[in-house]
Structures are given as structure tokens and as C-alpha cells.
Amino acid sequence: MAKILGNFHMALVIGVILVIAAMAGLHREAMDANYWVQFLRYLHVFCGILWIGLLYYFNFVQIPTMPKVPAELKPAVSKYIAPAALFWFRWAAVATVLFGLLLPEIRQSGSVGDLLMLEDPYRTIGIGMWLGIVMALNVWLVIWPNQKRALGIVPASDEAKAKSASLAMMASRTNLILSLPMLYCMIMGAHVG
């Protein structure tokens, strides 16, 4: 059992196989156009959980804990843990936004344009979409370029690394702040209106 559960890729493959089994066993007869819209929503939510979960990991765990980590252990975080977490963080942001932008187009009830223009009855979810897009842009245009310098992935002076670390942290905190109303708008927009 440890061989299976100790291997991330094996565990992920088993999870995907179980999703396919659930699809075939529970909904094989219901796989119409609406089913695939809901499956796209599932992918959007899964990627969103990964993205926002990592945002919360950085802000609730890694950033506050790093000052307490002994100096000799900090390279383990900055050279191994943070780059891996940032990989999933930035690509989950892309997938979340792309799946989210596909949903209204495939659903054919409103369009991305209606949502982004905050047309009634799409105002709430439209605000959530805008917040998510701003957050994703923040990931790719501010957080990731600054983290690459701060973590030494790209060459930078010690002064530039320190400045980049501070900018990345402030951008991450901005996303933390924006995530709260974004999640509210996404949930309420989909279930309340």
C-alpha cells in the first residue's frame, strides 16, 4: 500500500480512474450536453481549489513560518518546496480561468461578454470573474516574475532578491484579499444570482 500511496503520480492516476468509474457507473445514461457543462464546472472547481488552496498555503503557512525556520533549513523551502508549489499555483490559475471562461459559452445562457460587462443577471458572477482574472494576471505578471528572482531561479543581486521577495509577498497578500470576495461572488452568483 505504501508503494501506491507513497507515489504522487500513482495516487493521482487512481483518483482519475475513480472519477472515470463514477462517470461510467453513475451517469453513463445522462451524458448529454448539460452533463458535459457540469463536468467542465467540476474541472473549473477542482483547478480553483488547487489554485486558491496553494494561495492559502503560502499566506497562512509558508510566509508566516519562514522567519521561524532555522537558516540552515531555509534552502530546502526556497530551492525545492516553493518552486514546486509555485508551478502548480500558476498553472492552476491558468486552468481555473480558462475553464471558467468556457463555462458560459458552452452553457449558452449568457456569454463571457455579458458576465464581464456585468450585465444583469450576471453582475455577481461577473464581479467574481473579474476578480479571478485580476488575481490570475497578478500571479503571472507580478508574483511569478518576482518569485523567480527571490528564489534564485533567475540571477539577481541580493538587493533585487529582497525587493522581489517583498513585492511577491504583497502581491500574494493582494490575491488573498481579493480571493474572499471572489469566492463569495462565484458561489452566490452560481446559486443565488
Radius of gyration, rounded? Answer: 19 Å
Largest beta-sheet details: none
Roughly how many Å apart are the termini? 46 Å
Quantity of strands, as a count = 0
- Which structural class should the secondary elements be placed in? mainly alpha
Summarize the structure.
The protein has 193 residues and is an all-alpha fold.
Question: How would you describe the overall organization of this protein?
Answer:
The protein has two domains: 1-31; 32-191. It has seven helices and no strands. It has helices spanning 2-5, 8-27, 33-65, 74-107, 112-116, 123-150, 158-191. The model has no long low-confidence stretch (mean pLDDT 92).
What key phrases describe this protein's structure?
single chain, 193 residues, mainly alpha, 0% strand, flat
List the helices and strands and how they pair.
Layout: H1 2-5, H2 8-27, H3 33-65, H4 74-107, H5 112-116, H6 123-150, H7 158-191
Helix pairs in contact: 3-4, 3-7, 4-6, 6-7
